[in-house]
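User: Okay, second chain of the day. Same drill as before: sequence in, structure tokens out.
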Amino acid sequence: MSELFPPFAPDPNEPRKRLFKPVPFRVIAPNIITLIALCLGLTAIRLAYEGRMEPAVIAIVAAAFLDGVDGRVARLLKGTSRFGAELDSLADFVNFGVTPALVLYSFILHELKAIGWIAVLVFAIAMALRLARFNVMLDDPDRPEWQKNFFTGMPAPAGALTSMLPLYLSFLGVPMGVAVAPIVLVYLLGLAFLMVSTIPVYSGKSIGKYVPRHWVLPIFVLSVAAFGLLVSFPFEVLTAITLLFLATIPISAARYRKLDQAHAAGVAEAKGEQRPPLESTGPGSI
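Assistant: Same drill. Structure tokens below.
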């Protein structure tokens, strides 16, 4: 038996086979940003149930900011991956679906008992459905290019930041007693409807690709002024942004309808030009 399997000493210089391929850091970096945003969202839930509402809102706003950063970092570093896309979608559901609803429940909706909790469930499920639809629409190869400038329904970060309008108003001194709880409930359900609806919302993805040279310095100044206002008067600015965003939804829908009609007319005209003319065999032919 020993002749069949003679003992041998392994070669110390033989290279070891790698079980896994090394992953470039440019692929890992966007996922780290996504995980930090997820940690902020989960921490906001803890802060809310400890009664620290202002830090909880700030954590959600920071998570929304990082959500806008991670995708751009991935595209800049050419580190996009299917894993990163799935992780980002799951983090969005927690940060913008579960967390804001639970924060609002801890803030005022608990006054409505089971009815308030049902509103929390509806908002969270609406966010999950909205994200699932968004992921499916990304894989649609027949989607016209101009439609990429619009979201179908309210986007996830906007839904989360808009849902916290009652908190912004509370921080500004507006009384939020038990009598206001039904209004907050209706408002939250309305946002849930906007997220799962097909109402187009302008995404603004085409803004900022090319900036005229004479606008560069004014944009720098306006950016610094906006940042200063946000730091000095955070909840005033967030309230103004929320109301402005809600006011632009009908404008976005009207603009989408106009572009859709123009696109349909262009397609119909193109089909008319491609249609071959009827052949005629002579006078009296049918």
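Confidence is low (pLDDT under 50) at residues 280-286.

User: Thanks, on to the next one.
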